[in-house]
Amino acid sequence: MKWLLAILTIMLLATQYRFWVGDGSLAEVTRLKRQLTQQQEKNTALERENRQLFREVRSLKVGSDGVEAKARYDLGLIKEGETLFIFLDTEEAESD
After folding, report:
1. From CA 38, how far away is CA 32, in angstroms rounded?
2. Which residues lie on this side of the membrane: Cytoplasmic (predicted)?
């Protein structure tokens, strides 16, 4: 009878081990839920960035104002007759 009780106890512990520690365990489910939440946050940020880029592309396709603004900002475009003023921060100028 003692052997039967010992075998049943071992079998119970083996099944509980898989439940708590093995594949599909509570710890793994919790870890996967955390990963899912992190991935959903990344996806939301990327969707926001994609919408912003889509708006920028649409603006550049629609008219020349978007292209001009992009050229002014990124390339420093100035038109004929305009004067370019560059203001330096005094702290930056002193450190150079």
Report:
1. 10
2. 1-3
Give the max Cα distance, the chain. 104
The span from the CA of 87 to the CA of 50, in Å, is 33
pLDDT one-digit tens code per residue, 34-44: 999 999 999 99
Give kind and range of the element (H or E) at residue 27: helix 26-62
- State the CB neighbour count (10 A cutoff) for residue 71: 13
Kindly list the averaged pLDDT for each block of 10 residues, start to end, along the chain of length 96: 88 79 80 96 98 87 78 82 82 63
pTM of the model: 0.51
Q: How far apart are CA 36 and CA 92, in angstroms?
A: 45
88 secondary structure, DSSP code? P
